[in-house]
Amino acid sequence: MIKQILIDLSGTLHIENQAIPGAVEALKRLAQQNLKIKFVTNTTKESKRILHDRLTNLGFTVNKNDILSSLGACRNLIEKNNLKPMLMIAPDALEDFEGLACPRNETPNAVVIGLAPTEFNYARLNEAFRYLQNGAQLIAIHAGKYYKSSDGMSLGPGCFVKGLEYSAQCSATLVGKPNKLFFQSALDEDVKPAEAIMIGDDVTDDVKGAMDAGLRGYLVKTGKYREGDESKISPAPTAVFSSFVEAADKIIEQLTQKTVYCT
């Protein structure tokens, strides 16, 4: 039985300011089914407000409260542990961390890294390295290898996280996908992992992460997908589709067949 669908955003529904062809209509069709739909994203370049505005402008009908962002999960972690972090976060995402940055007259006890190209320079990375050497905790909002942008593939924050781990001889706490708790926290209380499907373009963070958490993992061949990605994990993805459109139509078909069978 399928009760809930988790959907990745960047690379699955859209690439920057361009919707995946047919995705707007496919989401509308899926939303007409008796399903709970949530959107789970590792996007750290922009706040939830900016992300929601982007989706709305592209024509998607998305409730802001149905977006589960790794930024939000990270904020919860910071507040829960009363941390005073150095924030290596993109300017457009800082509003999600309002009031949390370490005061200028104090020393950070955590370093938080998101996808922040403006922060990945020697001076800032060296500053973070020194805090970590002195015992600060390293928190990675996610550790993606790369992502799809309008001008091609671009480096994700993962290589910078790994570099700091190596040099400071520490291990990062990973907040977003593929963390099991991130997927499980996205499910409604009455939904078991086996009753949910994750749809995404990242075979490791989206699909394997979801399957490790007990969900079904649907891989789509858009965004960061590269030929042969489905062979890079074991077990293999639950299913592979050309795009979100095909995945959505397959789910609707399965639900329709189930309804016919039950009656």
TrEMBL record:
<keyword id="KW-0378">Hydrolase</keyword>
<comment type="similarity">
    <text>Belongs to the HAD-like hydrolase superfamily.</text>
</comment>
<keyword id="KW-0460">Magnesium</keyword>
<dbReference type="GO" id="GO:0046872">
    <property type="term" value="F:metal ion binding"/>
</dbReference>
<dbReference type="GO" id="GO:0005737">
    <property type="term" value="C:cytoplasm"/>
</dbReference>
<dbReference type="InterPro" id="IPR006355">
    <property type="entry name" value="LHPP/HDHD2"/>
</dbReference>
<comment type="function">
    <text>Phosphatase that hydrolyzes imidodiphosphate, 3-phosphohistidine and 6-phospholysine. Has broad substrate specificity and can also hydrolyze inorganic diphosphate, but with lower efficiency.</text>
</comment>
<protein>
    <recommendedName>
        <fullName>Haloacid dehalogenase-like hydrolase domain-containing protein 2</fullName>
        <ecNumber>3.6.1.1</ecNumber>
    </recommendedName>
</protein>
<dbReference type="InterPro" id="IPR036412">
    <property type="entry name" value="HAD-like_sf"/>
</dbReference>
<keyword id="KW-0963">Cytoplasm</keyword>
<dbReference type="GO" id="GO:0005634">
    <property type="term" value="C:nucleus"/>
</dbReference>
<dbReference type="GO" id="GO:0004427">
    <property type="term" value="F:inorganic diphosphate phosphatase activity"/>
</dbReference>
<dbReference type="Pfam" id="PF13344">
    <property type="entry name" value="Hydrolase_6"/>
</dbReference>
<dbReference type="InterPro" id="IPR023214">
    <property type="entry name" value="HAD_sf"/>
</dbReference>
<dbReference type="InterPro" id="IPR006357">
    <property type="entry name" value="HAD-SF_hydro_IIA"/>
</dbReference>
<keyword id="KW-0479">Metal-binding</keyword>
<dbReference type="Pfam" id="PF13242">
    <property type="entry name" value="Hydrolase_like"/>
</dbReference>
<dbReference type="GO" id="GO:0016791">
    <property type="term" value="F:phosphatase activity"/>
</dbReference>
<keyword id="KW-0539">Nucleus</keyword>
